[in-house]
Amino acid sequence: MPREFQFQVSPEVAAQEVLLKQHVAKLFQVSPQDIQKVNVVKRSVDARQKSIKINIKAIVYLVGEEYHETTIGIPEYPNVENAQEVIVVGAGPAGLFAALQLIEKGLKPIVLERGKDVRGRRRDLKAINRDHVVNPESNYCFGEGGAGTYSDGKLYTRSKKRGDVDRILQLLVAYGASSEILVEAHPHIGTNKLPQIIQDIREKIIEHGGKVLFETKVTDILIKNNEVKGIVTQYGNTILAPNIILATGHSARDIFELLYQKGIEIEAKPFALGVRAEHPQSLIDSIQYSCDFRGQYLPPAPYSVVKQVNGRGMYSFCMCPGGVIAPCATAEGEVVTNGWSPSKRDQATANSGIVVELRLEDFKPFAKFGPLAGMEFQKDIEQRAWRLAGQTQKVPAQRMVDFSQRKTSAEIPKTSYVPGTTSIELGEVFPGFLTQTMRQGFQEFGKSMKGYFTNEAILHAPESRTSSPVRISRDPQTLEHIQIKGLYPCGEGAGYAGGIISAAIDGEKCALKIAENLKK
């Protein structure tokens, strides 16, 4: 009878199947030849002690016990070419997984994406990095796959209550992701591998009768008697359908403005804002692993840190080991940072958003904008940073200790942020309460992580798109908008998700609710 075991081994043993079998054989008090298979189901790094261990949960099969290699296949989808149509606005994780779920339930998704397909986006990303030109419809945030495609592909979520995390991970494996994402405690695909996965999902949607329309921007939502009737595109075309999944992401400000202008209820939502801090990866390794060199069997070290500073939470966000900082503006006249890592996480630097929680009262200077006050607060900082850094895609930057000591850095070394940096005292970028919290907070971080508070670390400003500044009101049971029948606010942009997995889950949930309603 196969048995499940949990145990710890050295990184070297965990990385080599032969050594792992030998270790398990000792636990079982049998010969290694008697071990047919050590099937690792969960793996994580335990770096709390000086001697670093790998936690492993595995199912052990002895010789003679039945073992079959598990293969994860793509579901058998019906052809929905002539089925009831559902409009899906946005081809990020919420929109794409909603579309797949609609097809599973026999409905035809029409996916509208304002940006380009996943390959076409690359030219526009190069233009941001090389020429400082921002295409407001095709950038790191807009385009096939959404912000996640070219922003790392982290799959970790604390939101287990939101839905079936394993189902989303298994679907990603079915579409080409490594099965390692089912095992690792903090799964990650990598920006270099995500485009093909996203393309394969899109092709499957089309193959089974769905539609995917790129460079198609929604400029109006047609509503009659508080029921959706369809949408209007930037070309003046009308697409009619009685159900719309609105999965536009956290940066689609024009959609928030459209809803507000039409009197469709939305509300300001707290979010977090700060900087993106970059350290040498070797320094983070030495802090986290308490060693001079991590060796070949340990992954580049991540970190997670949370502090209460001046009564506010200040914490790391979207930490990227062995990664780079990317320019994520969605319009001219603003600068925005984010981070990503390739699948091997083999870059020389580590970066993380370091952000401070905001409250609704922080948006009072923008109260005239009503529920868009948080969005205008966000825009004001991004635009100020753009002006201070030279009105290109360069960002304001400062060494960490210099920032805490209110000193403009004499020089900024080259960082992973390709458009470049301008040395600025970052207190000029942020409101006083934010600056004060961050100055003190970095010193507090240094007390928890010895060596973290250093002038080797370069702060890039701002990290401002952590989550949506708006929540689009919906009924918690039906998931429909509280006013508008047939409108399903969905994912990060609507304020109901916080990352690839939770957004994908929310997309599926909205699709299922539509399927349920249509059967009534």
UniProtKB/TrEMBL annotation:
Domain MnmG N-terminal stretches: 200-250
Every FAD-dependent oxidoreductase 2 FAD-binding domain range: 86-120
MF-aspect GO terms: oxidoreductase activity
Keyword Glycoprotein: no
Residues of the FAD-dependent protein C-terminal domain: 270-466
Keywords assigned by UniProt, alphabetized: FAD, Flavoprotein, Oxidoreductase
One Pfam family from the record: GIDA
Cofactor: FAD
Keyword hit for ATP-binding: no
InterPro entries: FAD-binding_protein, FAD-dep_OxRdtase_2_FAD-bd, FAD-depend_C, FAD/NAD-bd_sf, MnmG_N
Source superkingdom: Bacteria
Stated name of the protein: FAD-binding protein
Organism: Flavobacterium sediminis
Organism taxonomic ancestry: Bacteria, Pseudomonadati, Bacteroidota, Flavobacteriia, Flavobacteriales
